[in-house]
Amino acid sequence: MRFRTLLWRSCRLRCPLCGQGRLFENWFRMRPQCPHCDGDLQREGGFYLGSIYFNYGLTALIVAIAYPVLLFNRVLPSHVLLPLALVFVVLFPIWFFRYARSLWLGFDQYWDPRQGEQGTSHSGSA
Ligand SMILES: [Zn+2]
User: Fold this and answer.
1) How far is the CA of 42 from the centre of ligand 1 (A)?
2) What's the 55 CA to ligand 1 centre distance in angstroms?
3) Does the pTM exceed 0.90?
4) Which domain holds residue 47?
5) What is the pLDDT along the chain (126 residues), one digit of tens a residue?
6) Do residues 1 and 110 touch, judged by C-beta distance below 8 A?
């Protein structure tokens, strides 16, 4: 399956197999199966620990770039910027939680395609 297709499906929080079914029932609760294609969304135990790479990585990247840029360009003083950064590193991962899981699922589907995939494999003809 094409990388862009999986990325688009992940960003829309949709099933990586069919692109139709929603991955989440609510903000934190993930469906065990796709409601559209019955694709398995609960992989092996601990599978979604990998989504921490996306969540923590993006959070750290944003703060590591934004903090010194805002501080050294004197956009905000440090006594304001530090509390804002602390609030950001708490709230952003909570908001990004679903996207991190969806991106992780799409990443896994790209590198280790599962049965029932609609489309072509990245290793096959595009
Ligand atoms: Zn599906």
Assistant:
1) 12
2) 23
3) no
4) 3-111
5) 689 999 999 999 999 999 999 999 998 899 999 999 998 898 888 999 999 999 999 999 999 999 999 999 999 999 999 999 999 999 999 999 999 999 999 999 999 887 665 544 444 433
6) yes
